Amino acid sequence: MLFHYDGQVDAWMDMEWSPQAIHVMAANQTKWWYAKRFLHPDIVARYNYIFLWDEDLGVEVFHADRYLNIMEDEGLEISQPALASSSSEVHHILTVRQPTERVHRRLITGTGWNSCNANSTGPPCTG
To answer: What's the pTM?
Structure first.
């Protein structure tokens, strides 16, 4: 399933797998907007893991096996791969990998950035 926020659906049609993919387009929306509306449990139940991929994540430096091992070790079922700011062009600060962490969970509130921790009581930290 591909979510298109920029109207560039036709740009993907030359990919061999594209005709079999579900393409959903809504201008100027975020991946989490799409996920909330289209990744219904009935659709994703058949998969062990869900990646929410940004356009700025290059596959040249992505190691799927390593990433899946981290997801399994950390008990993650849905995740967004982070970017190393030294090897990728970063479009959204939220996607920057924390170099001292194996995984990071971040949320933005009305008061600014917060990290998930053992005392967290609400989403996205608690599921």
So the answer is: 0.58
Residue indicated by tokens 């950390």: 74
> What pLDDT, on the 0 to 100 scale, is given for residue 93?
63
Alpha-carbon span 58 to 35, nearest angstrom: 21
Cβ-in-10-Å burial (0-12, 13-18, 19+) of 81 comes to: middle
CA distances 34 to 39, 66, 73, 78, Å, are 8, 26, 27, 14
Tens digits of per-residue pLDDT, 8-36? 888 888 889 888 988 888 888 877 788 88
